Each structure stands twice: as C-alpha cells, then as structure tokens.
# Entry
Amino acid sequence: MQHRCTAKIFIAIGIAILLAGAVLPNTLSWADYPKEYAIPTNQQAPPVTADIGVPAYNLGSTLKPMTSQSGIIQYNLFLPLTMIDPYTNQLAPLLARTWQSSPDGLTWIFYLSEEVYWYRYDPATQQATKLRPVVAADVVFGVQRWCDPRFSPNGFIIRRFVVGCDLVASTSDDQVTDKLVHGPTIGVTAIDTHSIEFQLTRPAEFFPTMGYYLTALPQLEIQANPTTWADFGAIVTNGPYFVHEYVPNVSAMLVRNQAFPTALRMGGNVDVVNLTAYNTYIDIYLAYLANAVDTAGVSPADLQYVLNHPIYASETHPRFEPVTIFFAYAHEKPPFDNVHVRRAFSAIVDREELIEQYLDGYGLPMIHFTAPGIPFAPPIGEIGVGFDPTYAQNEIAAAGFPNCEGLPPIEIFTLSPDAGIAVAQALAARAETYLGCDPDLFTVNQGGDLDFLNDLEGYRPNIWLIGWGPDYLDADNYVGDYLGCINSHGSGLERPCTELDELIEQASVEQDPEVRQVLYTQIEEGFFGPDGEYPIIPLFVRISYTLAKPWYSGPFDTFVWGLGLFYWDYHSIDMAAKLAALAP
# Structure
C-alpha cells in the first residue's frame, strides 16, 4: 500500500470569520444568521504530520457520528461535553466547561463554552466556513438522537439514566416519530443559549463521565439536509480537525481547525493526520518497522523481539487496559442454564497459565468482573473461586453430569482467528482433563461478527469469548450494564433476574461512596463467590504495548481508559526529527 510522503503535504486551511458577538435564541432558525462567508488563512509548511495505520473498519462507509464506523475520525470532528484526560485519567471539561447537580442527584446542569462554532470545510478550496455558535439546543438535539433507535445503536449507555430515553430507545423503528424523539419525552432541556438541564431516572454521581454520549449535533444543518449533512465535503463539525481526504475503508486525512478555541486545545501540535487502512494489526506493525507509520501495537508473539531490540525497546510503552476478557454463557441453552455447570467450567480455568501461554505473562488474572482501576471495583484476586479442580468436579456432579456423563454438545465461539481459537480450545482441553469430558463434545468456531448475541431463534453458540471495557467510569457499567438481567445493550447472556439485580439497582442509585463500595463487593461475591451465579467466566485483563517513534509523543504510558489515544490534539510530532530520520 502506497505511503504518503509527509514532507510534501501542504494544506492551506481557510477559516471563516462570522457572527462576532451574536446571541443565539433558544429556538433555532436560519433567519437568525447573516450570510456565511469564508476568509482563508494559510498554514505553515511543512505541516506537522502524524502517519497512523488503522484497521479498515475504522475508516468505514460513513462519517456520521453515533455509528461504530469511522469512530477514529469522528472523535476529532465532534466535541463531547466531557472526556477522560488520557494523561491524568481524570474527568476533564471539554464542550461543557462546568457542571453541577441537585442535592438529590436527579438534576444535572452543564454550562457550555461560548467559544465553540460549527464549521463546514471544503476540501476542494481548503477553506472552512464558520456557520454559527454551538448552543444548548444542539446538545439537546444530539442527546435526543442518542436515544433514537433509528440513528444510534448505542443509546443503551444513557437510556438507564436520562428520563424518557429508555421509552424512546425501546420503541420499534417503525413506531418512532420525530415528535416522540424531539418533543418533551426525553429529559433534556436548553435552559438558555449555553446551559442544558438533564433529568435523571436515578441519582448517578458518575453521570458527567458519560460526556462522550452527551454530544452536540448541528440541529439546523441536519434538519436542512437530513441525508447529506455528513457527506464528505459537506459535513458540519465543531471539533479540532476537519476531514480533508476520505476514501472509505482505505484512507483519510484530517487537518487542524486553526480557529478551534485555544482554551480547549489539548496541548498537541499535530496539523495533519494521515490515516491508512491495513488488513491486520500485524500489517500495521510491519509498516512501523518500515517507518511507514508513527505508532503500532505489539502482539504477544512480537513482544519479546521488540523488548530485546536495541532500538525498539526504547520505543515500547506498556499500557494497562481495563478490558476484562471472558467467556460468556448463553443462559437459556443447556448445559449452561444450570448454575452448577457454569461454576464448574469457570473453576477449571487456570488464568495464570493462560496469561503465560497466550499473553507471554503480560496480563492480570481476573476471577471477578469489574476491571481494576474502575471506581468501586473490588481488589483483584480477593473475590471469586478461581482455579479449583476439586470444586469444579463437585459442581459438575451436583449438576447431574458426573465426569460429564450426559452433557450435551457444547459450541464455543470466538471472534479472533488466532489466540481466540487457542484459548477456546484450551477451555475444551481443561474440561477433558479436570471434568472427564469427551473432547468430541466440543466444537470451536470462529466468525467475524456478534449478530448471534440476541438471535434466540437463529444461531446461538453455548459459550463465546469476548471482552468488556468501560463506557463510563463506574462499576455499574460492568455489573449493571453488562451482567444485569435488565439491559438493552446486547450482551446476549439472557440471564434471568435474581435478588442480585435488586442489589445492582440499589448500588447504582446510592450516593454514599462507602456504601457503594460495600454493595459492589457484595454483588461481585454474589456473582463469583463459591455459591455465585457465574453468568460468565472471567479470564484476565491485558497489559498491552504500543510502539511509538522517538519523534512522536502522546499519552502512551499513562492512558488506561477512554478515547484519549484517538484525540490527535493530545499528540505531538517533532517534525524536524521525523523528516531527518526519514530522509534518504
């Protein structure tokens, strides 16, 4: 795949000057704005350029926000209310500069920056038109769209919390109307031009950490051009970058929005981001070795090579990932509708052995679910049965299947074609060793999607290998959003409701941190203690490694959660050093 020569990219970004001192009414209308116009400004050349390799699905077929496609681009085009600073891993203001809650925790008010504008960038002329300020009504419109099942597959993140969002999100697509979505149903209101009020269904002290899902969208522009407003060359954005080139599933180029408010800058200096699609992460790694990209992940198979390399060792950055990898059970299908079988299969897994064998030792064993570092997670290793063959044998006998006699066939599914298959096969092998199962009982399949999760009348494996990372910083996102019996995010567990779900509900609304810690400890014990329900088999959390060229600096060593690694405004390139290193 051809690699761009970064030294030859000269982008002149035009910025329009418009609406100085304008006051925006709460009811938006195009008549409220003067004619837009653009004034070009030249960018210094050569631009500071980052060359990034990404999987093809990150450069998908649409630039529209609220989809899983092109996410690595969208993060830089649309500002969330808040985000997690990748250097401190603390909540940080962004579009919302401040916020406050009522004493009962049911009302939150966010106050927007008054310096953020909507722009339309024209790649042909390399000019951007400043359209109008971002206002509270845009946030209201954006949040309403998050709840609209016609546009957002991810409304489950906030639907448990924002009044009315669940009602809208659970309405079938053919029954949803604009009146339902954009009327008074959803509890989000523009108090004035730059203040938004949220009404919650329950207290949630962690609500500001959901800032990414509380996003402004250009209401006027979408309503004027509902099908084309996000097309390449016409898309209206408010973030620190524009899209200068875009070939779906192949490549993209982002260029800095030079008019982006200085107060909202994230400290980086990257003017141009070249995004190139590669077939696999191994291809990105090889491109890094060839100096075609500035950063790459390191697979476990290559880790020892780079750690012992005289050059690459100093370019390697460890990073803890609070993503719990686990086997999920289909609770409605035998044999995992039987809690004793679920306990038995969890207890035959030697997590330390898996980590050594498949991660070269770079991981942390997990015998409960909520990853370390997430607020209210119990200490690692203190809750859960873990590897205990005797316990497993007793449980499989209690299930009525001593030595696996009478156990029905079991299909294990994984998305990963390599290590995933090996880990799935390892589970089957341990069942043979410790439970006496016939190896012919097991089938391991691999595929490329998760459509089966909620397809109860179609393909449903008995167990599948998957991971879960945080959407917001709280244990509720693990035990409530994923393990809870009442959820809408597509976990596919089909777990029946029990008394633990009442405890989950109690913990999610509790405002005393000490009480919440006790409750979440009890919940994890109820799931993974000796008498636990075992809705899943927790396995491990990974310690991943990132390669970064010596001229490239970013939050590689500190970042553990969120989207910070994809916000290029947090990154910097020493362009002189890069050009010198790449010179023939």
User: Anything to note?
Assistant: Residues 1-27 have pLDDT under 50 and may be disordered. The domain at 320-542 is CATH 3.10.105.10 (Dipeptide-binding Protein; domain 3). The chain has two domains: 6-289+549-582, 320-542. The chain is about 25% helix and 20% strand.
